[in-house]
Amino acid sequence: MTTTTRTIPPAPDTPRRVLHRIGRTARRAIAAMTPMGRGAAAVSAACAAAYAFTGWAELLAVTLTLMTLLACGVAQAHGSTGCRAELTANPLRATVGGTITVSVTVTNTGTAAIPSLRIDLPIGATRRRLDIARLPSGRSTEQRITIAATRRAEVPVGPLTVCRGDPFGLIRHERHAADGMVAYVHPEIVPLDGMARAGTGRDPEGCAHRRIVDDDFDMHGLRAYRPGDDVRRVHWLASARARTLMVRQYEAAQRMSVAIDLDTNPDHYRNMREFELAVCVVASIGVHCLRWGMPLSASAGGASLTPRSATDFLDWCSGLATVPDVDAPTAHGVVDESRCRYHVIGSLANVRSGTRTPSGRSALAAPPSDRPVLAAPPSMQTVIRVADGASPDVRRLPRYTLITIGMLAQLPIITETAP
Fold it and tell me: Taking 50 as the threshold, does the pLDDT of residue 356 lie above it?
């Protein structure tokens, strides 16, 4: 039995199908037009209509010129944009004064060469334009952009858009090529080595501290006997092995939960330099606490955070901004078991002790002046007032300690005297 296969030719396009294709092509062309291209098309149509009534050769010349430019734009914008783009930042996080390098890698994944490409990359409030020349099939090119970290901020980078169009800006095809990311410019911080003992009393119910002491509950190791050591702490078995007296050492157990509040009201600061100093103070204290393993709770402008790492905390500090009509920080929102509380305020914020409400929160009492007030709860805490250019000062008051600093370099020295 013989089977015969016959190919049936496709049915000719009907007028409706032809009109549908023409309309779809026209819609794509209109969508690819820039505002300048739409304006050129409108002027060309108007000149053509005017030429039909007046017969002026100048109007026909304008019409033909604009139509030629639009046709050239469509021809230049037409083509494959089959490329793969990658957007990376190294490093993704920097400190004020550093730099962030953004790398854009474009690979031609198509079978034909790409004549030219334009890449639009938003960086913060600006938009960078990268022009890529002819890119053969299978080849890659990389361009780098350096961002100067001049101030603390969260810098959105991307998304990446690949564009093709004509040099006159009449036609443009855009394609999303890579997702965006956020680069962080961290505030400046200073080490607070002398603050390891500040505000953390010995507590057998607390968690283990990294500081080594001579007497506690969690044994850390052994050391050689020194005159004056308590004989009850001698480890006799280890001493017999070492043939010299060895004394036990312990890891301090302390209740080290720390709460930090930042005053974000712009009326409490003389200038933005003071607010940036306050953020640097908060960042320095928070990073120190997290590196020493202290549970931390931070709040600013109504937002709170319980960071797990110093990097997460610095990322949060990068986005801090002033919030109008916000009271100075109080003890509201901090954990009750915190023995160490820091309130960072501006130089225009007045400080005095408040009273306790039935709910246990701090109450604001009206001061004799019209300056803003920070209510200090009866528990021991530290209030750090930042005043640009002021001399360092420590005042121990009955219910809190008031620290005044005028520059960040004063914080390591002044915190050693805080309780």
Answer: no
